[in-house]
C-alpha cells in the first residue's frame, strides 16, 4: 500500500465533479486500500477520491470501528433535524468552522466488492457522508458557511498560501479532538 498525496485548496481538481464508476476493477480495490491508509495516516475520518486527484465517485470513511468505502454513493434520506458542529478538511489544512448538517442520513452505493449497500448514519458518520459526497460534487465545507465566515476562511487560506501564517493542526480548539474529513 502507498500513502497518496492529498490535494489542497487552490488545486482546481477539488472543484470538479467526479464521474460514476462503471465497473469496479482491481485498480479500484488497490486505490481504496491506498485511500484508507492515507486517511488513517493523515489522520482523518473520511477521504474522497477527488482529494487525491482521482475524479471517480469513491470515498472511504473511518468512524470509531466503522471503516469502509462507498462507490457511486447516493443520498436517499436526510433528516430535517440538523446540528452545527466544527468541521475541518484534509484539503483545507489549518481552518475549522461550524457547519450545519443533517443529523441522520441514509446512503446507498456499492462497497469495494461491488455489492449494493444501504447505510444509515448518525452523528459524526452522517457528517462524514455529507462532507465526502460534497467533495465528489466539487463542493467544500466553506461553501456552506454564512458570507462573513466564508470570507474569514478564505482570508485565512490566502494568508497561509502567502506564507504569512502556518497551518496549525494542534492543539485542537477547546481541547476537542480534531476530526479531519
Ligand atoms: Ni474534506
Short précis:
With 181 residues, this protein is of the alpha+beta class. The protein has helices at 26-41, 123-136, 147-161; strands at residues 46-48, 58-63, 66-78, 82-87, 97-102, 104-110, 116-122.
Description:
This protein has a single domain, classed as Peptide Deformylase. 25% of the residues lie in helices and 27% in strands. A 5-stranded antiparallel beta sheet has the order 1-2-3-6-7, sandwiched between helices. A two-stranded antiparallel ribbon has the order 4-5. The radius of gyration is 16 Å and the shape is globular. The model has no long low-confidence stretch (mean pLDDT 93). The structure holds nickel (II) ion (NI). Nickel (II) ion binds next to helix 2.
Descriptive tags:
7 strands; alpha+beta; 181 residues; globular; Peptide Deformylase; five-stranded antiparallel sheet; two-stranded antiparallel sheet
Classify the secondary structure makeup into a structural class.
alpha+beta
- Output the CATH homologous superfamily: Peptide deformylase
Number of strands: 7
Q: Mean pLDDT across all residues, rounded? A: 93
List the ions, cofactors and other small molecules found in this model: nickel (II) ion
Q: Specify the number of helices.
A: 3
Tell me the Rg in angstroms: 16 Å
Extract low-pLDDT stretches.
Answer: none
List the helices and strands and how they pair.
Layout: H1 26-41, E1 46-48, E2 58-63, E3 66-78, E4 82-87, E5 97-102, E6 104-110, E7 116-122, H2 123-136, H3 147-161
Antiparallel strand pairs: 1-2, 2-3, 3-6, 4-5, 6-7
Bound molecules: nickel (II) ion (NI).
Nickel (II) ion binds at residues 89-91, 131, 135, 181.
